[in-house]
Amino acid sequence: MSDSIWTSTLEAFRDRIASREPVPAGVAMAAVSSAFALALLCKVLQVTRNRKDFAGDADLISELLAASLSTSQTLSRLADDDVAAFREFMACSKDPTATADQRDAALRSSITVPLDVARTASFGIELCEKAKGHIHWVVAPDLGIAAGLLAGAVRATLLTVNSNLEHLPEHHPFRLEASAEVGRLAI
């Protein structure tokens, strides 16, 4: 990976998604939209906390704000990790000299990174749930939008995980373990 997807404009990222390039694609896009959803949650929490009429739990809002920011940063990193994992998978699958261990490691990464995106976006949904009832009504729609974007990202990313799991033997321990987690994360 030459550059982070975060060094380009939104327009350039959109255009790369729409191009013939194999990456970035769906998982990176889901990670980016999740990072933005958590940034929106940060805004909701800050607007709530900074209102003159705020009488809520300032410690809870601060904890949720810190967790939202950290989770958004994790998703930003995972977007780049997905690009790198898919490039490695493609390179390994085209390299006749790649060993079985190298191919297995590349395939596992193409499953693990999207699973990490789904897991992290799911945690973001939990943060949105914890914020409910503690935010100002004026930003309630934004909280709902953040949760909706995160839920969509979880569902979308699990599509990739399930597709990539098909490349492992049916009773492969990693496939069984990852499939069980997909079941737990499914929305």
Task: Explain how this protein is built.
With 187 residues, this protein is an all-alpha fold. It contains six helices and no strands. It has helices at 10-17, 26-50, 58-94, 100-131, 140-165, 173-185. Helix 2 runs antiparallel to helix 3, helix 2 (26-50) packs parallel to helix 4 (100-131) and helix 4 packs antiparallel against helix 5.
pLDDT average, as an integer? Answer: 94
What's the β-strand tally?
Answer: 0
Query: What is the overall number of helices?
Result: 6
Rounded to an integer in angstroms, the radius of gyration calculated over CA atoms is 18 Å
As a percent range, the share of strand residues is: under 5%
Topology:
Layout: H1 10-17, H2 26-50, H3 58-94, H4 100-131, H5 140-165, H6 173-185
Helix pairs in contact: 2-3, 2-4, 2-5, 3-4, 4-5, 4-6, 5-6
